[in-house]
Design goal:
Blueprint: H1 3-26, E1 36-42, E2 46-47, E3 52-53, E4 57-64, H2 68-99, H3 106-121, H4 126-185, H5 193-209, E5 212-216, E6 222-226, E7 230-234, E8 237-238, E9 241-246, E10 249-258, E11 264-266, H6 275-310, E12 331-334, E13 345-350, E14 361-365, E15 370-374, E16 380-382, E17 392-394, E18 397-402, E19 410-414, H7 419-422, E20 439-442, E21 452-453, E22 457-458, E23 473-478, E24 483-485, E25 493-497, E26 500-504, E27 510-511, E28 517-520, E29 523-528, E30 536-541, H8 550-557, H9 564-567, H10 571-611, H11 615-649
Antiparallel strand pairs: 1-4, 2-3, 5-6, 6-7, 7-8, 9-10, 10-11, 12-19, 13-18, 14-15, 14-19, 15-16, 17-18, 20-30, 21-29, 22-29, 23-24, 23-30, 24-27, 25-26, 25-28, 28-29
Amino acid sequence: MSLLSIGRSGLLAAQVGLSTTGNNITNANVPGYTRQGVVQTDTPSQNTGAGFVGTGTEVSTVRRYYDNFLANQLRGAETNQASLEGFYKQISQIDNLLADPTAGLSPVMQDFFNGVQNATASPASAAARQSMLSTSESLAARFQGMSARLNEISEGVNSQIVSSVGEINSFARQIAELNNTIAGLSSGGDLPNDLLDHRDQLITDLNKLVKTNVVQGDNNMLTVQMGTGQPLVVGNTAFTLGTAQAANDPSKMSVGYVAPNGKFTPLPDKVVTGGQLGGLIEFRNTALDGAQNQLGQVAASLATSFNAQHQLGQDQNGALGGTFFNPIQAYVNPNTNNAPQSTAEVKGTVVDAGKLTASDYSVDFDGTNFNVKRLSDGQVTQINPFPQTEPQVIDGVAYSITGSPAQNDNFLVRPTYAAAKDLTVAVNDPTKIALAAPVTTGAPIANTGTAKISAGTVDQNYLAPGNALAAPVTLTFDKTAGTLTGFPAGQDVTVTANGNTTTYPAGTAVPFTDGAAIGFGGVSFNITGAPGNGDTFTVGPNTSGVGDSRNGALLAGLQSKNVMNNGTATFQGAYAQVVNVVGNKAREAQIGMNAADAAVVQATKAHQSVSGVNLDEEAANLLRYQQAYQAAGKVMQIASTLFDTLLSLGR
């Protein structure tokens, strides 16, 4: 091996080193670029008889400094960061909406009950009644406005899901194409470092959209899986994702595979995790659905309980009160996969504010029975009997199922989902506000005893056919027998004293107990004191209730009454709980996002310590290779001089 060849090999090696170092420097700020380094080895030496003499050097490869473990660690931190960031951006909108001191629900709900109290204080005032109607309309409008804003957020989430799926498909196709190209270029043993960097950057960007898992395959090809193991890229094949309206809820976009023939196969939401897409789906299925349902629960409970009490009152025209708010119907959506021959129809009406929950329900037909499954905890209640003779009440909702079902029919029932949107005021005439009680009681001055009768109240039984009083009922006390007589025929009488209730058949004398609660036909009252023999007490219809506000007081009292959640929360207390839950979730997401940011910084530093370009180090390498280049050139210069000397000796 000549000295000239040795110098030439060193010159070429230094030139590759300079090129590689220069490439590192110029790409230092390129996202996804991985530092490269020259791996230089000596060539085999030759035996000259006097020993082995070196023959020079060569560049065996240009190495890519890449640590797969650190890269996966960074991707894991980034997908978690993207998920939490997407979740927080969305839930902060709900938090701001619900907790706003002026645009939230609390101030307008307070105004509504203030209006009820003012009308109760002045039941004959047309202005006070009109003001009550105005505050009612304002309350309904606020519920509707908040619901509309939540629906806007929901539509925005759907739009982002569609956009994210489109980006995922684009990245998957590019990765599959690069897999194919890299496999073709890797057959000689050398790796196309720039293409590997490009592919890894695509995987990084994809990982920010959805959590991915990368599996190394043959010939430097990668398999990319998403979520819990669903394939996105296998070799040079990219699977296509798509979106479509969920089969059981058209308000939601579901994610699934799209076959070459265009058939869409949905994936369960739980398998799409991590990244922006996973964060959006988690937000929609937890925070957004929860906020919509809980806000609707307040609206439905308020409407139902207020209606129930309003119907027990009497308006200025002397008629029993009607519905103040229009009844709340459950949102029911039949599954699009139900059999075409099925004619089954499910309806739900909110009837009991106290039993109402914020859960959704799945109604399924197993071929024999309909089963109602509460999705929050999986509790199942069977519709019995079926076919129904009357609606069946489950968790405050009256289910009415008609038609001929087919096996595996499925219906999604959301009792409170649209309640805030659907809350409207049914009364538009101030005179039809039922502030008075429909019954009055009295005792003649001529009574000889000291007994007094309380103002009468009514319950839901008073609304049953035949129970409403058409004429006064006169009760007479028989001192000898210690009984009251004169109760209406056909109506049993109940007496509640000391916590015990006794029922007496219609038409019989009822023993008198001082202070006991007496009831018949939905009417209740108390007689206290000592009645004299022959003393009478009257219970009759209210014929002059213009100035009466007894039912108005009961309506106003609903504000502080534990109506919701099985009698454990007021309307404002339940709403405050919604605000608190959303606020806590937003705070948790913010804390998690901050922690994720720190994790990304740490993982990035660890990854860059191996794969990143250090300009100071590259500057030193540049000088080193420059000196090596100059030295190798000097070797070649000396070899040329020596060769010229040999040629001159031969002349």
